[in-house]
Amino acid sequence: MLSQIPAAAGRLLISQPFMPDPNFKRSVIILTEYSAGGAMGFILNHQTDYLLGDILPDVSYSEIPVYMGGPVAENTLHYIHRCPEKIDGGIEIAEGIFWGGDFDKIKELITSYQLTEAEIKFFTGYSGWTPDQLDNELREDAWIVTNKFEADAVFANNEHNLWKETVISLGQRYAHIANFPENPLLN
Fold first, then answer.
1. Which Pfam families does the entry link to (predicted)?
2. Which residues pair with 146 in a beta bridge?
């Protein structure tokens, strides 16, 4: 088993380099829920072609990118942030990272240019697992779990390098994985 750390809310899932499901190819997911009832999280590094203004036309600041949170309920909008002093009602899932909160306040802050993409990340859909599904995938080495990351990495607009940098940050045991080609047939 590749992963030495158990899954839990607030931890990152890093997909194995040859993940067969294209939804999760070279993905880094932050888990927001993990229990006997299943798991939920958001892909941090699969940016869509949409900006927030495309999805919410009543929000005048449209420069914030929207990410594909996962293949479940893709017609829903979710967010994580790191500014609880501005947004009430969020749940702290990791140190300095909050899930949810007062959506009307978020729209007001964005419209008045008081909230930036360095403070909040939006997702369409989410990644979800039924009871025991994620644990089975971990036993099959589909994911590596880590709790060693900085909030800056979660909110960085670094979709092309986040997977590689996260794998390398795990140390020498995993660093060689970061250099695997995306398609092993081209090696």
1. DUF179
2. 12
